[in-house]
Each structure stands twice: as C-alpha cells, then as structure tokens.
Amino acid sequence: VQLVESGGGLVQPGGSLRLSCVASGFTFSSYFMSWYRQAPGKERESVAGISSAGGSTNYADSVKGRFTISRDNAKNTVYLQMNSLKPEDTAVYYCKARNGWRTYWGQGTQVTVSS
C-alpha cells in the first residue's frame, strides 16, 4: 500500500497550489479520502474529505471557500486545490485513506506560505 503526495512548495500569501496524492496497493474507489495537515507544534487536523464516489465533500471551517478536494478514481488520485493561501496554512499536508477499520497515510508534503 502506498500513498504518495506531491505538489507542495513555497508560495506567497494569496497564491495557489494543487496537491496530489496517488494511491496504489488497494481499491482506491472504495475508500473515503481525506487531507490533513500538521503545523509545527500543533496537532494534526482534518482539512477536507471526499466520499468514495466523490459525491460528498466536507471542509474545515478555516479552509471553506478557499480549498477544493476532488478525486479521479480512474487515476487513483485525490487532489487538493488550495487558493488564497495564508501564512497560517503553512504545514505538512498528508492524505489519508479510510475504509472501515483500514486506514492508510501518506508521508506528507510541505506547504509553506510566506513572502
């Protein structure tokens, strides 16, 4: 099982990034997918989630209207489009796959928002 995130980097406030998470080793289309983030000295927090077929999404209040989660089950990939980025969005971003008791995590990708 593998979840590989990419797309992180350094961006100025107000900028955009698109994160990707490519899954392998399990039936991606059967899993609820989420993005989490962890800032230095803080607990890991949920950012956004999407149902297995993509018909339902949810977002943390702090990112509503700025971030969009989507998935392409044909490509085994989940995305996080991040717009209007703020310094407080700086964190390591992780994708997570869940189906009942089965949970898998990626290694994370660093996002830094700074001028």
What does this structure look like?
- A hairpin with a 6-residue loop joins strand 4 (32-38) and strand 5 (45-50).
- The strands form two sheets. Strands 2, 4, 5, 6, 9, 10 and 11 form a seven-stranded mixed beta sheet that branches. This protein has a four-stranded antiparallel beta sheet with strand order 1-3-8-7, with no helix packed on it.
- The chain has strands at 2-6, 9-11, 17-24, 32-38, 45-50, 57-59, 67-72, 77-82, 91-99, 102-105, 109-113.
- It is mainly beta.
Which features would summarize this protein structure in a list?
four-stranded antiparallel β-sheet; 115 residues; 0% helix; 54% strand; mainly beta
Please give a quick description of this structure:
The chain is mostly beta strands and 115 residues long.
Secondary structure blueprint with pairings:
Blueprint: E1 2-6, E2 9-11, E3 17-24, E4 32-38, E5 45-50, E6 57-59, E7 67-72, E8 77-82, E9 91-99, E10 102-105, E11 109-113
